[in-house]
Amino acid sequence: MRLDTMKPVLHPVHLVGAGPGDPELLTLKAVRVLRAATVILVDDLVGRQVLGSVLEGAEPAPRVIHVGKRGGCASTPQDFIEKLMVREALAGEKVVRLKGGDPLIFGRAGEEIAALRAAGLEVEIVNGITAGLGAAASLGVGWTDRRMESQATLLLTGHARPGSAGPDWRGIAALAATGVTLVIYMGVSRLEQIAAQLLAALPADLPAAVVERASTRDERRLVTTLGGLVDAVAAHGLGSPAVLIIGRVLRDARVDAFGSVERVGT
Amino acid sequence: MRLDTMKPVLHPVHLVGAGPGDPELLTLKAVRVLRAATVILVDDLVGRQVLGSVLEGAEPAPRVIHVGKRGGCASTPQDFIEKLMVREALAGEKVVRLKGGDPLIFGRAGEEIAALRAAGLEVEIVNGITAGLGAAASLGVGWTDRRMESQATLLLTGHARPGSAGPDWRGIAALAATGVTLVIYMGVSRLEQIAAQLLAALPADLPAAVVERASTRDERRLVTTLGGLVDAVAAHGLGSPAVLIIGRVLRDARVDAFGSVERVGT
Q1: Which residue out of B13, B16, B155 would a mutagenesis test of the A interface target, given it has the greatest number of A Cβ atoms within 10 Å?
Q2: I need a surface site. Which of A73, A157, B39, B49 has the fewest CB within 10 A?
C-alpha cells in the first residue's frame, strides 16, 4: 500500500438506543459501543445524565455533538445530521448516533441507514428500551393482558409528517374498541385532536394515562379516562416528552406507590 | 420486636426482561438485579447463555428454577409459577422472574403483578429489548418509516388464548393496508391461518420477513412476500421462537450481509 493514497480504515456506524432516560436502562452493548466511539451524535431526547454516566472516565473522551430533533421545535435538519454522520465515518471516526428510546421506533432510522449505506458505510443497530415500555413499567401494567382480552398493541405517533394523510383514526379507534392497547408517542401537544378523534368511537370511561419523562427522576404519571384526559393533562401541566397509553390494561395501573402519581376521575 | 414472632424482611419481586437472546442486550439494571437475586424463576424462552453470562462468579449463587412457558408445549402452569414466586418472596428471598424479551409484551406480567400484590408484595419491572425489535435490528429496518408512509406498528400474538375471540384479522389487515407494520409474535406455528387471513385483504407482494432466534448466534432470517411466506418458511424449515414482520418497511431489509440470510421471491 502506498502511503500517499492510504485511506482511513472505515468502521461501521452504530445507531444506538439510549432508552427512556434512566441510565441503568442502557444495554451492556450500548455502553460498550459508546465507550469505544470517537464521535457521538446525540438527540435532544437523550437525557444528559445518560451520556454522562456512560462516558465517565472514557479515555480519550469522544467528541459529543448535540443534534436536536424534538417534535415541533427548531432542530438540526435531518439532512445535515445524515451528512455529518457520513463525513465523520468516512474520515475514519467510530461514529455512534445516539437516540432516545429505540432507534427503530419513530426514530428515522430507515432514512439514516439508507444514507449511510449509500455512502458505502456499514450500519449496526443497538436496540434500546422504548419510552412506551418504560412508561408501562412505571404504571405497573403490560402492553397486553389476557385477563382483559387485550391481545395486541398499536404504537402511533401524534406527530404526523407535514403533508401526509395522518393516521386513520377511525380504524385505530375500531381496533382499540376490541381491546387493542394504544401507545401514542409525541401525542401530548396534539392531545385535543387525538382525544376528539378517539372519543368519536370509544367510550369516555376507557382508562387513559400519560407518563412524562418515563423512568427518570422527574417522571410524572397521570391515570384518568379518555373523557377526562384533556382537562387532567392541562390541570397538571403535563408536557413533552411524554407517552400516552389508552386501554383496558390500565385498569390495574399503580397509582399509590409514588409521590408524583395522580389518578383523576376514575 | 419479639424474636419468636419475627418475620422475614420482604423484598420487592422483580419482573425482568432478558431481551431477545444476545446477553449483551441485557440492561445494566437487569444485570444488577439478577446478581443481587437469591431465587430466579426463568422462562424457557430465555437463552441459557444469557443467565450464564450474568451470574458468572455471583457469590452466593442464586437458586435458578426453570419454569417452562412455551406456546403449545407442555409447561409449568401459570398458577403454579405465581404461587412459587409468592412463597419464595414471603420467605424473604430476593425473587427475580426472568422472561424473554420484555415482560410487558405478551409476558403475562399483568397476571403475575396482580398475584404478587394480592399477597402484599411489591413489584418492580425491569424492561428488556423485545424480540420484535431485535428482529428489526437484524433486518436493518425500522418498525416505522416516514419515507414509506408507515407511521404506526401493531404488535400481535399468533397464539390466541383458548376460548377467546382471537384477533380481528379484517381490522388488522385494513390497518396494514394503510402502511401500519405488523409485528407478530409466536405466529410461525399458525402461519398458514395468519397468512390466509391477511391475504384476503392485503396484496400478495407485500414484503414479509421471519427472524428465528433474533440476536443470537443461531439467528436465521428470511425476507419474502406475504404470498410466498408459507412456502418459504416451510422450505427453509424455520420454526419457533420466531418473529414475523409484515409491511412496507421491509423494502430495504438487509439480506446481503450475513451468511444465514435468504431472500425469496421478491
Answers
A1: B155
A2: A73
